[in-house]
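Deviations from the work plan: none for this task. Representative record:
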Amino acid sequence: MEWDWAFVVEILPTLIEGVKITILATLLGSVLAAILGLGLAILRRSKNTLVSKPVGFLADFIRGTPLLVQLYFIFYVLPDAGITLSPLVAGVIGLGLHYGTYTAEVYRGGIDNVARGQWEAARACNLSVFQTWTRIILPQALPPMIPALANYFIAMFKETPLLSAITVLELMNQARSIANYNYRYIEPITLVGAFFLVISLVSVIALRWLERRYGKIEER
Amino acid sequence: MGQWAGYLQLILEGALVTIKLTLLGSVLALIMAFVAGLGRISRFWAVRALATAYIEFFRGTSIFVQLFWAYFVLPLFGFSLTPLQAGVLALGLNVGAYGAEVVRGAIRSIGKEQYEACIALNFNRWQSLRHIILPQAFVLMLPTFGNNAIELLKASAVVSLISLSDMTFQAQVVRAQTGSTLMPFLTILVLYFLMSSVISYSIRGLERYLTRGLDGVRS
């Protein structure tokens, strides 16, 4: 089968519609993962084992099971419990929850890297727990984490095609429907691959810059 | 209750396919990781370029897209693959690209004095790699290889979308037949979690076995 440029031009507007949804899902998912990860990391450090143990198990469970199945779970099982979500919302929650367990590990590493003396100094200055976290620990812990967090957001971006399985009309789904409708797979699927490759290569360059700017988390 | 036993059997049949995919994919990934990882530190420019292109291509595009490409586009060039072959190929090549970076990183982290000792002992490049560098580097690679194997297990759920009857596919079949959603999906979530736990425990065991007697020797 031949590569047909006229067909490429014809399907490009539809694919760009999909790109918008893909990027939207990635951004919303990243925000959710960043917030959930921090919450999980702090809960996992709790001295109360009734909190830290179940949270730890839940995070390990989510990290040990496929995102696709979690998406099915959110999209098909929750409506039985009376919670009906639109496909995009279900997808964003799935992405955020799954990658939240990964970012939680990044946060944990970053928080552990803050020197013990800082905790002691905060206590000596009579700061409350909340003040210790927001004024002393997080401002020091967050910047070195930025490259590692960005790395997971790029990984999440590459998982967004899974959302097509729960009928989100993102890039992959648009490409598949074009392919099924016209019975031509080569152009749509290859274009999707090329799109992901270009974005990934660009984001690798951006990641290098972030690493130079904020330093690598492993080296601290 | 007897009815659930039949459906459970269906899911377990799918579990076998998932295990088969994970094992075959891991073998291909391990081979590709060493081929491409060693290729990246080759003396020859062309080999390095080829390995880098492979790694960046497979890490840069999504596993889902690669699988669809292998299953739907390759036949148009005259390579028809069964769903299982396409699945093993896409999973193995994808995870192999991530593994290649692990191999490269581990080999580069071996101290310079080890290489100097190899030269002092008049080892050629292959001998020093085989007897001195790789035995030390392999131990460093193991934990990350374990994580990669779990990623591969999780990614294998995607093959259900090219109609390979793995565990996720069978759960969908059960859902379609019974109308029950909680039971099939909860069952396979637990099964996936058990499988990834088995992988992480066996890697930890292997690591302990390979590092026996090395306490205090390794920095």
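The CA atoms of residues 7 and 219 of chain A lie 49 Å apart.
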